[in-house]
Amino acid sequence: MANNILKHAPPGSECSLTLHEEDAVLHGVFVNRTPDKRAGRVGLGLVGIEERLRLLNGTAEVSAADGLWRTHVTLPTGQRHLVPRL
Q1: Contact, 73 vs 49, CB < 8 A?
Q2: pTM for this one?
Q3: What is the CATH number of the domain that holds 65?
Q4: What pLDDT, in 10s, does the model give residues 6-38?
Q5: Total structural domains in the chain?
């Protein structure tokens, strides 16, 4: 995901990454600015990410609105509290 953000987000723009574990599932939410011309388009990088997550019983959901690209990925951990809560 970080590679996609570096490749497609406007230079110098901010991005955020949030990770949390809930009920033995790791959730990652990636948000970054996107140029208007790319809004809503899913490219091969995201398709590859979705395929790899699916092999591990995970998911990826993407959305674009108001100039922001949001990707929410999930990955089962098989154990609780893998990621410490801060």
Answers
A1: yes
A2: 0.75
A3: 3.30.565.10
A4: 888 888 899 999 999 999 999 999 999 987 665
A5: 1
